């Protein structure tokens, strides 16, 4: 893909806009930036359909089985958390759109250790997801085509690797059509369900007898909380729109649109579709691991929907695979720009695509694909479980970053919600604190959950997070020591300059003042070099 400007590939890449509150940036004026060629239609569809995946289309069966109709409460609670977290992220991103998204803001508002640790943790989540989605998609394909499962998994991963290497516009175009298919499918399901419930279309069953099914909360309020975990994890990924916004033609506008539409996206695609399911299908008829969309339509006497739904689910998996590789590579690119990842991840090709970061991310994804077939229980399951609580960690970091950002933004003269184009978090700081407390409570709930698999997910995620934090602290301390050593060198250089240039007839106080001026001048020069 070429840039929207014909001569873009011939000229030196423009500098990357960097928001400098409380952070050192390791890019220079000559450092390459990413292409800003994602169009509004790309961002709109990524925002609309980006969060629709197998978590809604298939994994929602476990939530419905656990809570029955009460699953709507679970989706409502999870939806509120997502809306609030996206609002916080939108406040920071609208003031300073950044491909590193929340990781960059964590560096600026909490500290380099936080940005590094959550950035690498997020990268780890998405590279593992590459292997998970490629494997899951291959299982659907091999239902219809006789071949070993590793073949389509490998082909799909290599295909999306090539697509992402070509250009960001290629990624956006593919996501545009993937998201379109998902949105049309969910919308048609909702319309069809409404017609069934209104008896416009005849069916074998007319609604659900909730009294015979144990009422609206067949498993009590505990069922609602059991369902909350798979529900809330199925919504993870809404923040990808803010990552992609950094490569759009109008980043600030793209961020505002993604944040302002998240409410009705969740209401329509999640709560709306699940409401249709629980109104059509008794929760006792739900099969865990089988798409409840297929189960609902089959239950009311409409056969042949499993093949159609396989196509929709396959589309969702391919969309997630594509987005996983994109998101992981952009996070690696951002980390490298802040000196928190290998500098080579900053390299871009002629289309301003970070090819080294893409290749590195795809390589780990391919390794996870191989491990799934070579050692599925011994290794691959451990990798998958190690990402189980990443969503909560990411949302916590977003909330804490937003909590600390207000004073630093004000110091730069930026007032969220007042300045043109910015978003303001509602009820600050009380609602922000409420979200933080809720997320911590969710981690505590996972700790004491009766399901051992959930506890394993938390513990493994904590191990990976702990390693990331330790690495972040070590890197931050090295940066501080380097800065301190540089200051010592500056002081010595200033003293040498005074000794060489000072007039012996100066009074002592004048000499001291001259020395201070020289030291300050050297410090300013060093700061300029560091910022570049």
What name does the CATH topology of the largest domain carry?
Amino acid/polyamine transporter I
- Count up the helices: 20
Order of helices and strands, N to C? Answer: HHHHHHHHHHHHHHHHHHHH
Mean pLDDT: 79
Number of spatially distinct domains:
2
Helix residue percentage: 55-70%
The proportion of residues in beta strands is under 5%
CATH C-level of the largest domain: Mainly Alpha
Which stretches of 5+ consecutive residues score pLDDT under 50? 1-30
Tell me, briefly, the overall form.
Answer: globular
Name the CATH homologous superfamily of the largest domain: Amino acid/polyamine transporter I
Number of strands: 0
Oligomer: single chain
Largest sheet: none
Q: From the 3D coordinates, which CATH architecture of the largest domain would you assign?
A: Up-down Bundle
The gyration radius over C-alpha positions equals 26 Å
- Secondary structural class: mainly alpha
Question: What is the rounded distance between the termini?
Answer: 29 Å
Description of the structure:
The chain has helices spanning 40-49, 54-57, 60-67, 71-95, 101-109, 112-144, 150-166, 168-197, 220-234, 240-245, 251-260, 262-280, 292-299, 305-337, 355-374, 376-385, 390-411, 430-447, 452-501, 508-531. With 532 residues, the chain is an all-alpha fold. The protein has two domains: 40-377, Amino acid/polyamine transporter I; 465-532, no CATH class. Residues 1-30 have low confidence and may be disordered.
């Amino acid at each position: 893909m070429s840039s929207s400007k014909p001569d873009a590939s011939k000229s030196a890449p423009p500098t990357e806009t960097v928001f400098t509150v409380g952070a050192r940036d390791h890019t220079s004026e000559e450092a390459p930036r990413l292409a800003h060629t994602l169009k509004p239609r790309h961002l709109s569809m990524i925002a609309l359909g980006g969060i629709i995946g197998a978590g809604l289309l298939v994994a929602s069966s476990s939530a419905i089985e656990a809570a029955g109709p009460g699953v709507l409460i679970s989706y409502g609670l999870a939806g509120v958390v997502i809306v609030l977290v996206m609002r916080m992220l939108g406040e920071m991103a609208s003031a300073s759109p950044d491909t590193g998204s929340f990781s960059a803001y964590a560096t600026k508002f909490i500290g380099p250790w936080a940005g590094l640790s959550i950035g690498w943790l997020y990268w780890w989540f998405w590279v593992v997801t590459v292997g998970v989605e490629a494997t899951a998609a291959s299982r659907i394909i091999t239902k219809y085509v006789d071949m070993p499962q590793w073949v389509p998994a490998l082909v799909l991963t290599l295909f999306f690797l090539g697509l992402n290497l070509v250009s960001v516009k290629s990624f956006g175009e593919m996501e545009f059509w993937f998201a379109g298919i998902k949105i049309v499918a969910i919308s048609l399901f909702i319309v069809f369900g409404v017609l069934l419930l209104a008896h416009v279309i005849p069916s074998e069953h007319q609604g659900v007898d909730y009294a015979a099914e144990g009422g609206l909360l067949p498993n009590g309020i505990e069922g609602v909380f059991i369902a909350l975990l798979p529900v809330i994890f199925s919504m993870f990924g809404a923040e990808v729109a803010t990552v992609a916004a950094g490569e759009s033609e109008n980043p600030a506008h793209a961020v505002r649109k993604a944040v302002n539409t998240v409410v009705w996206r969740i209401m329509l695609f999640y709560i709306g579709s699940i409401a249709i399911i629980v109104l059509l299908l008794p929760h006792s008829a739900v099969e865990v691991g089988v798409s409840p969309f297929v189960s609902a339509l089959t239950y009311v006497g409409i056969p042949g929907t499993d093949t159609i739904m396989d196509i929709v689910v396959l589309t969702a998996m391919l969309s997630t695979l594509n987005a996983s590789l994109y998101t992981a590579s952009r996070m690696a690119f951002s980390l490298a720009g802040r000196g928190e990842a290998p500098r080579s991840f900053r390299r871009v090709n002629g289309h301003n695509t970070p090819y080294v970061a893409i290749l590195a991310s795809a390589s780990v994804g391919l390794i996870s694909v191989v491990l799934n077939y070579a050692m599925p229980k011994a290794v691959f399951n451990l990798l998958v479980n190690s990402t189980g609580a990443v969503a909560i960690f990411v949302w916590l970091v977003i909330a804490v970053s937003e909590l600390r950002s207000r004073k630093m933004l004000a110091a730069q003269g930026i007032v969220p919600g007042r300045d043109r184009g910015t978003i303001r978090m509602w009820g600050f700081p009380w609602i922000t604190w409420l979200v933080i407390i809720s997320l911590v409570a969710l981690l505590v709930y996972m700790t004491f959950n009766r399901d051992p698999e959930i506890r394993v997910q938390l513990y493994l995620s904590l191990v990976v997070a702990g390693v990331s934090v330790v690495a972040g602290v070590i890197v931050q301390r090295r940066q501080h020591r380097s800065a301190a050593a540089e200051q010592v060198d500056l002081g010595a250089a200033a003293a040498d300059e005074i000794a060489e240039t000072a007039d012996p007839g100066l009074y002592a106080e004048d000499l001291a003042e001259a020395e201070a001026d020289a030291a300050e001048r050297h410090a300013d020069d060093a700061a300029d070099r560091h910022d570049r």
